[in-house]
Amino acid sequence: MPLRVRLTLWYGTALALILIIFSTVLYVITARSLRDAVDQSLEETAAVAVRSLEERGFLPLIDETELMSQFPELARIDKFFQIFSPSGTITIRSPNVKQHEMPLSRQALEVASSGHTLFESAKYPKEPPLRLISVPIIYRGSLLYIVQVGTTMDSVEQTLNRLLLVLLVSMPVALAVSLVGGWFMAGRALRPVDAITLAAQRIAGGDLTQRLTAPASADEIGRLTNTFNDMIDRLETSFRQIRQFSSDASHELRTPLTVMRGETELALRRPRETDDYKIVLESNLEEIDRMTRIVDELLFLSRADMGEVKMEHLPVQLDLLIEDVHRQASLLGQERDIQVVLSATTSAVVLGDELRLRELFLNLLDNAVKYSRPSGTVDIALTIYQGQARVSVTDHGIGIAQEDQPQIFDRFYRTDIARAHTKKGTGLGLAICAWIAESHRGEIEVQSQVGEGSTFIVTLPLASASA
Amino acid sequence: MRILVIEDETKVGCFIKRALEEESYAVDLCEDGAKGLQMAFATNYDLLIVDLMLPSLPGLDVLKGVRQAKIQTPILILTAQSQVDQRVKGLDAGADDYLTKPFAIDELLARIRALLRRGATEGSGVLQIDDLILNPATREVTRDGQRIDLTSKEYALLEYLMRHTGRVLTRPMISEHVWNQDFDTFTNVIDVYVNYLRNKIDRGRSKKLIHTIRGSGYMLKAD
What we know:
- The complex is a heterodimer of chains A (467) and B (223).
- Chain A has helices at residues 3-55, 64-70, 106-113, 154-204, 220-268, 274-305, 318-335, 354-371, 416-421, 429-439, 463-466, and strands spanning 79-84, 90-93, 118-122, 130-139, 142-152, 314-317, 339-344, 349-352, 377-385, 388-395, 443-449, 453-461.
- With 467 residues, chain A is an alpha+beta fold.
- The model of chain B has no long low-confidence stretch (mean pLDDT 87).
């Protein structure tokens, strides 16, 4: 069932219940207060009658004329008056009850005998209902008379019937009007939801550039719209990243394929010298190495993304590791006449995976050596800074432009210079470095000036601090 | 036919250059976008081959720069991206054709022939003047049905002459289209090669096709 129908039904049911309760209470209270008013008026009239009988010394009244002159309020048409002897026989009565015999009821007689006043309702055929009060007059302990005053309930009943009619007619009308109103209001309130649904369908269809037009209000729908738009923003960003990534990956893999295919085809176009074939095969081998490295690193990164790379969490003596890495890098540097200097070291223990950390620092040193000018120097230093182990690798090479710095840890990001400088790079090394640093709850950052060199700084939490 | 290749992957550029040279094209190779654009401005190339991903100036901007300078040279773009929008952008920016890496050398050569043909004559691409016929696809040259064997440079020179029959071709024009940037224009190499061609094409025939225009250069015509 659509939400709109359900909302309207709930609303209608609640309103109907409220109307029924309200009407019932209104009817009951009105009926009671009208009857109470009748009873009070009867009681007052009876009291006046009793008082005037007392003034007359309880002498029996002779005739109706006397009665009427004694009780002028009896001239009012809506009340009648009867006086009974203690045995229940009528001694006198007002003229407006002539046409009916209205004997004192048994109950009235009994209650009067015990000296109490009684209200009762009576109904005669073809007559409006009556309301009666019977008051005993007791003089020196004995019952002298019973005064009975009565009135028709005609107007009360009519008022109540009219009220009931009004309530019965107006209640469904009010209910219908408010159901229609509720239906429209629910529709209005739900219209933005429909808009969101439509937009979501378009977005599910693949169009991530779609946005919801945000309503000006800060209500629930406004918040939902904003949340929704934020979500699409993030989706779009990550889709773009994925697309960029796969496009970069395919580009990086296509280049070695192009080289291999082109060189091989060229070699096969006509007979060549043996040395020419050798050159092609050697070149192909280089490209195969390059592709292998790209595929390995891509696999590593995607497994890292999936959380499938196992990481040790063992204490690692960082200073020993750095010394070892420094020895290895010195050998790398010798080939290009570059000195690798361990300029500072201190005892430090971090929790982590020794192999991965070794890879991280070797990668940084390898880069530093690659981008150094011939016969330059590369510094590596281990210090404790603000309670964390801090390893910095500094080269005095070509440096990295300010605008490239935020992106160098992105996958496949290579500056134009890097692309021209090291043809063998995969563009994934620093991305892996960043991942290793982050998975040790550490950080990696770069400081660089074009033409002066770069410093890569890795900070790692110390084992004692984290344990 | 002189071709400029702007490609930053050294190995890719090198094998393209070698393949084209084996087909008798004169080839200049450039690894940088901005420098490539300067070269395209400086020399009247017959064809440009541009990689879309280049350092210093993206291939798309090279394309736009060339077209803004009202240079109508056919341009073939190379791209490692297989996405349609990249190719559409390249074609809209003024490229005439594209190839996606990795590509077959035969296809590259066929597309180059097609692009060069588009500028000159219509038809299948076979060039003919009088009874001299040159087929760029097979690189076969015949005169009066007889096969003529030419060296690579001789072939290139003849192809250039045949694509511009009836027009005076100066020595600088010939050097610019048949030799690459390493060629020293102050030698008589052009005259030497024209003589080689004459020996193979006109010698012993009553009708001479290669004419010397004194003080200017050479012309290929039927009468």
